[in-house]
UniProtKB/TrEMBL annotation:
Compartments (UniProt record): Cytoplasm
Assembly with partners or alone: Interacts with the cytoplasmic NapA precursor.
One Pfam family matching this protein: NapD
Keywords: Chaperone, Cytoplasm
Coiled-coil ranges per UniProt: none
UniProt-recorded name of the protein: Chaperone NapD
Gene Ontology cellular component terms for the protein in this record: cytoplasm
Iron listed as a keyword: no
InterPro entries: Chaperone_NapD_NO3_reduct (IPR005623)
Organism: Pseudomonas wadenswilerensis
């Protein structure tokens, strides 16, 4: 690995009646995976980014999608490049 990699997990809460549309819009975003969902409109999403700013921008982008009520960061890990470990 040549550069740092940030892994972030989010819970996205969407209006249940718009869940399929929200999932379709999320699938259009790069470096994002959908992992779990509930009928209540909650989704677990994992992001990969090169820095924290990209994560914050993606959260803002997700929050602005039609049907999304809230996207909240629940986990963040920084994977350092090889040779940079403590």
């Amino acid at each position: 690995m040549d550069e740092a990699l940030h892994i972030a997990s989010l819970v996205v809460h969407a209006r249940p009646e718009l869940l399929e549309a929200v999932k379709a819009n999320l699938r259009l975003l790069d470096h994002l995976e959908l992992h779990r969902q509930s009928a209540a409109g909650k989704l677990v999403v994992v992001l990969e980014a090169s820095d924290e700013q990209q994560i914050l921008q993606r959260i803002e982008q997700i929050n602005s999608l039609p049907g999304v009520l809230n996207a909240a960061l629940i986990y963040h890990e920084l994977l350092a490049p090889e040779g940079d470990s403590p």
